[in-house]
Amino acid sequence: MTKLNHPNAALIDALTAIVGERYAVRDPEAQAPYLTEWRDKYFGKTPLVLRPGTAQEVSQILKSANDARVGIVPQGGNTGLVGGQIPFESGDEIVVSLERLNKVRHVDAAGGSMVVEAGVTLSDVQKAADEAGALFPLSLGSEGSCRIGGNLASNAGGVQVLAYGNARDLTLGLEVVLADGRIWDGLRALKKDNTGYDLKHLFVGSEGTLGIITAAVLKLFAKPAEHATALVAVGDLDATLALFERAREVAGTSLTAFEFLSGWGLDTVAANMPGARKPLDGSSPWYVLMEIASGVADGAAQSAMERILSGALEKGWASDAVLAASLEQSQQLWKLREDLSEAQKYVGGSIKHDISVPVARIPEFVRRAAVVVEGVCASARPFIFGHFGDGNVHYNVAQPEAMDKAAYLSKWDEMNDAVHALVAGMDGSISAEHGIGRMKREALTRFRSKTELDMMRAIKETFDPNGILNPGKVL
User: Fold this and answer.
1) Are 388 and 260 spatial neighbours (Cβ–Cβ below 8 Å)?
2) Which of 48, 215, 315, 475 is the most exposed place for a label (fewest CB within 10 A)?
């Protein structure tokens, strides 16, 4: 690929003219929110942040940058956790924020689809679907600030993957601006289309390295008529696996979520997050947050949940459980799960792992990972939660209580390497839903085969021969 250039004054002026002075941010103080991510692990630098308002403006920006051989970093809500949306410290790249592409173009509840621009927040996508009498099921803790373009670019998962799939499964069509400025209009709301390669799947999960998503056709579902939500205290992860298998047997596809969290995690939330309290007395090593949905308000969801819980208590898989009696109580239970990420800051420095293994091997992974972690840093404390139903474990490891935070975080790469090696040996993935970005780029070369990497590079070369799109990310 061609060596990239530093953007000169003439290019900066030309790019500014495309969006207008009001939407071209040159002041370093005003740029600050675009140049760091919420973990404060990456701090970038740029001469210019552009905020285009149309796909045509994005097209002009990319054509100019491609001609000048200057790198472009696309950014949505800046909620990514692997540094993929942050420019490097060299200051050689232009940031393109999609936040102004924020229109819901069309909602077709009867047809099961909606067309939205990339800058619409996930919560606004959900709201627009809801107001039309439909459901868009992608749900994340950051849904009030993350944007749908970034969700698609990172193939986001969330808490309802078990029933509805991840972002890739929820995408029917895309509008994408290619590196040379051409616009691909693939906004087709078709459930079936076998006319050649399915191009949209190349861009979903590509982290802005193959093109910039500017709009999407999303899949909608019928809104459930009722929900049943329960928090269950379980003794160990083998019991959690047995409970999951029983829940699937009883509820089938109506089982929309099956989350798990450690007792320490729940205690940390209850002790530190405003308004949080444990809904069950005593302590348990593990908890499960489970939800069942039904399309008919006939009590079926509640009945299925009661059967599952009574069986779990009888068989000794669970020691206690609470079944939400209202929507408000259900929301309170989900708030405990959503607060886990933020609550981690109260236990000190934390080294993160977003991994997946086959569901049946989650108990084995957690047992073996504890040994691995102890070998890297004695007395480090795993802070574990995740989406048990799809094998996605957020295996975050907090510092030993008596250890200096900076000294502990200096072990980040060593800890990642050890945990990721275990994951790879268990036929798992080192990135379940957060992507590769900057953080896992080197790890990708160790845990994917040469053939796979050669294919990825060939695709990158085809779509972005000059390497201007999110340079240095993923590959």
Assistant:
1) yes
2) 315
Mean pLDDT computed over 184-212: 95
**Residue 155 · residue 168 · CB < 8 Å:** yes
- 363 with 238: CB under 8 angstroms? yes
The domains located in the chain, with CATH, are: 104-222 (3.30.465.10), 226-339 (3.30.70.2190), 348-434 (3.30.70.2740)
**Residues 102-120: b if buried by 16+ CB within 10 A, e if exposed:** bebeebebeeebbbbbbbb
Determine the pLDDT at residue 1.
56
Structure tokens at 310: 């009574």
Mean pLDDT of 86-113: 97
The answer to whether 302 and 226 are in contact (CB under 8 A) is yes
At 184, phi and psi to the nearest 5?
A: -95, 120
C-beta of residue 344 within 8 angstroms of C-beta of residue 383: yes
User: 463: which 2 tokens?
Assistant: 């779509």
Please give the helix or strand (H or E) that residue 48 lies within, else none.
none
3-state secondary structure 114-135: EEEECCCEHHHHHHHHHHCCEE
Q: Which two tokens stand for residue 149?
A: 């373009």
Q: Distance between the two ends of the chain, CA-based, in angstroms?
A: 12
Comparing CA positions, the residue from 136, 145, 144 lying closest to residue 172 is 136
The Cα 9–Cα 426 span in angstroms is 51
Q: Which residues contact 445 (CB under 8 A, 6 or more apart)?
A: 453
